[in-house]
Each structure stands twice: as C-alpha cells, then as structure tokens.
Amino acid sequence: MPSVASLVRHGRDPRDPRRGTSRAGRLVRRDAPVWTMRPTPRGWGLLAVGALVTGVGIGLGSTDLVRLGLVALLVVVAGAVWVLVVDPTRGRHALRVHRSVTPNPVSAGSGATAHVQVTAGDVASRVRLAEVQLGEQAASQLSGGLTLRARVERAPASITLTYPLSPVRRGRWPLGPLVARRTDPFGVVRTRATLGEAVDVAVWPEVAELAFPAGALVGEPDRVALGARTPSPDDAGLRTYRVGDDLRRVHWASSARRGELLVRSDERAGRRPATVLMDLPADRSGIEWTVSLAASMGLATLGSGHPVRMLGGRSLATRPLAESVGALTHVREGTGVSSRAELLDRAVDLEPAATEAESEADLLAAAAELTRSGSGSELVLAVLGPLTPRARAALAEVVDACEPYAVVRLPRAAGAARRDAEVTLGALRRAGWHVCSAEPGENLEDVWARLLETAR
Fold first, then answer.
1. Does the keyword Transmembrane feature in the UniProt annotation (predicted)?
2. For 75-91, how does the pLDDT look when each residue is reduced to its tens digit (9 = 90+)?
3. Which of 122, 191, 220, 241 supports an S-S bond with 261, CB 3.0-4.6 Å?
4. First CA to last CA across the chain, in angstroms?
5. Class of domain 271-453
C-alpha cells in the first residue's frame, strides 16, 4: 500500500530562482535529480554480523563460519541489486508524474489545490507503483509552515494525490518533485529518489478591493494629449513612441511630419495613464505591506479605466528600471481578468534593491521617467519610506509634470527612521504632493480613504 509522507518544506534563495534551500540552509540545485541507496538498520546489522563471522571463520580456519558470514553479506548485496533493477524512477519502466495546481497563480492568503498523478505504463511499472512509498515536497511559503497530508486515490495503473495549499507569501515557490522510497523484499536496503519535475507556483500579493469614486483624484478630461508639444488637429492625443507600444497605434502621418514616431494616446477611455511608484523597505513585513497596498491601488485605478504601470523595486526576471524597458509599459483595462493578472504578475517578483544607493538610483530613474519629455501628464500613486535629500528633490519635480499622491510609511517606534519619514512627508507636501502617512500593517482600506481625503 503506497503511503504519503509529510510534505518536505524548503524555501528559496531570492537571488537565484533555480535554487532551493533545505531547512539546514544548504543550497541545492532544484533541477538536479537525487538518488541515494543505503542499508536499513537490519542491513547494517547483517553487514556487521557477516563481516564479524567471516573474520572469525578465517581466523579459526573454519570454512562453515566463512560461508555463513558470506551468506549474510550476499543478502545485502542481493537486496541492493534488486532495488537497482526495479527502480521506479529510471529505465524503460519508470513511473510518470503529472502535477497541476488550481488556481495558479494564486493570491497570498487564498487557498489552492494541488493534484499529483503518478501513472504506470505497463505491467512492470504497475509492480513498481504498488510497492513504492511517495512523499511530496513543497515550499513552506505554500503550506503556511504546517505539515500537510494528501488524500490518496488508487487505481490499477495510477495513484492520485490531492492536497490543499495555503500560500502565505508573495513570490514564485517550488512544488515537487516527488520523493520515492523503496525497500527490497529482505528489508536490508532502502533507496530514495526524486520522481518527476518540480513546478513553480506563482503567488500574487494579498490585495484589497479599493473603491475608486468617479473623479476622486483627477478630473475626467474630454481629451488627453500625452507628449504633443505643439498639437495640431492631426497631432491631438499623440505622444512619443515608447518601446513596447503596439505598432498598430502609430500615427504615421504625424510621425512623418514630426520626424519621430508618435502613437495615439488612450483617448477612447478618457483617462490619463497612471503610475504606481514603490519604495520598498528592507524588512519583510514592510515589503509585503507596501507591495499589497501598491497593487491594490493599481487594481483600483485600472478598474476605473486608467492605464497603469508599476515602478520600483527589483525583479528577479528583469533588470533595474534604468536599464529595463518592459516595466515602462502600461497595462490597459478592457481585457477582463487578463489585465488584472498582468498587473499582479508584475508584482510577484519585486524585491528591494541590495543597497541604499541602488534603491535611490531606482527612485531617481523613476522620477526621470515621469518627468522626461513626451512622458505625458500622469496620475502618480506612490508608497514611499524615508527618502534621501536627493530623492526628495527629484520627486519634487514630478509635481510640474504629473498629478502626484503619496502614502509615506511611518515606523511605529520613535527614532531616526521615523524623523526621516516625517521630514519626507513635509518635503513632499511643500512640493505640492498630496500626501498622507501610514504605519506598515495598517488596514489598506483605511489608508486609501485617507489618501482620497487629500484630494479634496
């Protein structure tokens, strides 16, 4: 009867998506198959007794004792040969594994269900399947740190494992591969091998459904001219082409007259584009709260008809903002679930920069993008922490080109960090930003309500 062991939990090194970490902290390659064979306690006992009896027999010149000792040793050797021959993970009769997670991606704090089906293609494979013990591996971020048990459904040629997942943290976390354990008929040798391949489960940040009252932050202009420096009737609603824009939106006549590529702005929606800007802190709880708030604001803005992009942080899949073009494009509402999914996907891998200098460079690059010629007048929704004087000065210039709103994180404890945050709050307010303060962990709806109050 196959059994299902407790799920083996392991984490991930945030700087290498190909690697996982055992509970001891040792890095292991996730894509490297694992196969081990070792004697069981009974096997070790037979080896010890066989070696002792053989040695005594040789010392006493007793052929019978030597034969008896060799028999004990041969039992262990025969067991090792047997488990090699009937290994369920290799050869023509290897078992096949299919793994799926529903839904995938899944939001942090929500539930998902994993299905793992192990199938045998022939009679020899069925024999292996009937005697193998299976254990599943899962990242602790997918199990909430709890031991999970799977429901097992058996059929003549397959075994199906079904178990719940409770993701607790945003990211891409590994699930699998299976661990197959097998013991020989004598119970003297045991093998442990990985079966199948691992899959990554994408966990979106936990978000709140924020209400976006009509005209709450900006008016609704009849026409938005983005980047048209000297608009004519043909140039109205045009802006400079950016890498990633749909070529079908290029206005060729105006582009030929101007000498540069121009694309039509989103006049149909009647909404100016929006940028959600994040300054990620160093502590994990602060990071997740910041990303959740930023993603929630982005979804609310997207749902109201504004094209939205997210700037800030470092992604495992992309380069810094100053070197990346993919992060500069806007997600446009109108494609249903896919637009929300695209925006949330951009938030999955976000992590803070490794150093304060790199973090400042990201903010400076974002401010330069928002104020550069042809970027257009955008709605900016920012979640910021204590800023350096240089970053404060760069963001102050955003007021001249955009309609900026910011939530400034205030540390709960008094100290230098809180004083720096209060200085940032005052500097942005004096520069013309609409700002409110919030403590990390605070209810997202309450923070959003305070930010909306600053627009009145």
1. yes
2. 999 999 998 888 888 77
3. 241
4. 68
5. alpha beta
